[in-house]
Amino acid sequence: MEREVFKLFDLSGKTAVVTGAASGIGRATSLRLAEFGANVVLADININDAERVAEEIRNMGGEALPLKVDVTRVEDTKRMVENALNKFNKVDILVNCAGILSMKSATDLREGDIDKLMAVNFKGTIFCCQAFIPHMRERKSGKIVNIGSSLSSRASVCNLTGGGADYNASKAAVQSFTRSLAWELSAYGINVNAVAPGVTVTPMHKDTIEVAKSIFVPSIPLGRLAEPEDIANVVLFLVSDAASYVQGQTIHVNGGQIMVD
Ligand SMILES: NC(=O)c1ccc[n+]([C@@H]2O[C@H](COP(=O)([O-])OP(=O)(O)OC[C@H]3O[C@@H](n4cnc5c(N)ncnc54)[C@H](O)[C@@H]3O)[C@@H](O)[C@H]2O)c1
Question: Quick one: angle between helices 124-139 and 74-88, nearest 10?
Fold first, then answer.
């Protein structure tokens, strides 16, 4: 029996742009969306690793376009749109995964630290959305998923070295921006949502993963940190037709570490 519901997740013929696609959650998301049929534009400042992910997708029989993009540079985001449209004619999905971590204590933060962090995590998310909105608005269709952070955005947690106030604020800002953008773009048939991961085993935590396990796992009901694929699966849901009526939400994927409505 062919199940109709499976078709809701079919991304064949769709184009997805994933920023931060070279590593961690962005890489896992790119692979997952390709597995479900999407052509994937892999936008990352690290072009060598983006090319490696493109090769993985081609080996699966999919199509991929790696692009060197610094999300803090508006001109790069404009070039990303041009290249994506030249190659695939349309863009249906944007997933903003590019991000950097900060570890400094709030009292030691310098203006330059804050500017650098906010430029990637917050302004970069806005610039990439702005780059694709005209195209999506014209087509009256699109799915945008931003990546927040489940603990950082809500709890008074410190990152692993006791700092990270600017990172935490940037992720709360991304989640707030997501709601405002969803409000503005609803009239154009564009869904805008966020996924807020709990601590996830990625290269972002390459030097701190063992410490992260010892600190966080005891307070995670499901008893483990997230794998990148746990996050990618929820992104897949949000960009699929199964989530057509989900709008302006942040879905927390944290193993139950924080449970609130
Ligand atoms: N790993 C976690 O525990 C965790 C938890 C919550 C949220 N997040 C968020 O998930 C997202 C992905 O993180 P990850 O853990 O996969 O990290 P990661 O370090 O593995 O990947 C981040 C990617 O972003 C790219 N990038 C950094 N600056 C960029 C720029 N200016 N322009 C374009 N690309 C840039 C990097 O090259 C890298 O490929 C981030 O936004 C992060 O804040 C991660």
Answer: 40
- Residue partners of 254: CB distance under 8 A and separation at least 6: 150, 151, 196, 197, 198, 220, 226
The finding on whether 149 has its CB within 6 A of some atom of ligand 1 is: yes
Q: Which of 257, 94, 112 is CA-nearest to residue 181?
A: 94
Q: Is 257 helix (H, G, I), strand (E, B) or coil?
A: coil
| 71-93 residue pLDDT tens | 999 999 999 999 999 999 999 99
| Fold annotation for 11-253 | Rossmann fold (3.40.50)
Per the CB < 8 A criterion, the answer to whether 29 and 50 are in contact is no
Pairing of strands 142-147, 39-44: unpaired
Please give the angle made by the CA atoms of 114, 67 and 176, to the nearest 5 degrees.
40
Cβ–ligand 1 contact at 253 (below 6 Å): no
Provide the pLDDT for residue 260. Answer: 86
Q: What Å distances lie between residue 152 and 165, 181, 252, CA to CA?
A: 8, 21, 11
Rounded CA-CA distance 215/200 in Å is 13
Beta-strand pair 250-253/93-96: unpaired
| Residue 167 a catalytic site member | yes
From 122, 167, 177, 216, the catalytic residue: 167
Report the candidate in 86, 119, 82, 95 with the shortest Cα–Cα distance to residue 27.
Answer: 95
DSSP 226: B
Model-wide pTM > 0.85: yes
| C-alpha 24 to ligand 1 mean position (Å) | 7
